[in-house]
Amino acid sequence: MSQQEILQLKQSLQRRIVGQHGLIDRLLIAILADGHLLVEGAPGLAKTRAIKVLGDGIEGDFHRIQFTPDLLPADLTGTEIYRPQDGSFKFQRGPLFHNLILADEINRAPAKVQSALLEAMAERQITVGTETYNLPQVFLVMATQNPLEHEGTYPLPEAQLDRFLMHVRVDYPDGAEEKRILELTRGEARSQAAAVADDGPAIAQRDLLAARDAVLDVHLDPSLEDYIIELILATRSAARYGEDLASWIQHGASPRATMALDRCARAQAWLAGRDFVAPEDIQLLAPDVLRHRIILSFEAEAEGHTADSCIAQVLARVALP
Fold this sequence. Notes:
alpha/beta, two-stranded antiparallel sheet
């Protein structure tokens, strides 16, 4: 699997999704690092379109699930269907058995539904009754949250948040990008064929798995490995970097953050055409890896600090090797 094929996929995504370069990069990093994304942004920012277009570019199927308060676990996992002709039960697979899953407005579903999704994300399997079913090797959940509306929502438990590789925030496009969006949508409205660009054959799943192996072979210098570990430790023992930082962070990141930052930095370097990780790869992705994994104190919130501002302080105070 060559980097050129992935870069062609990236260019295809950029042609069809305007103004969300960061989201495109994070989607590719997530699929190369075998992780899941939590995306936060207002409606209309191409979140659904992004993962749907990614599904067009790879050999795999896409399914969107609208999370609502009345959703049941079986609506995700599937259920046993009774067959009266022979008196047996047959398992009818649910939408989680697809390769790419959009969990739209994930925080609108109750805890039972979240627990079903948690098993799928963490274990790559689904248990129904006494039977356990494996999910595809290429399996990515992109969950969305609307930051503008919180009525009728359920906060995601910390254990589930920790399963997301990155928490990505998307914002509005600028004026020039908005104009390009108008041109693109007008073209698609004139012809349905224009909505599906001819970008060649989809990337096979075996090639994606080979690309994941190539990402793991990207060199990470031992000094940068120590730097990643020190960044994570700084969120747990922040007093070493200032009493103010210690008073802001109530709980630091788990070891999953260390593993996530390692995998993401390697994927970022590979996408950039390098066979080694640079310090800027780590610093670029640290906010997305950490913002949902640290819990701020009441004092920090009272003083107006955010997870991003605390992470910026950690990056500023932990010395580069």
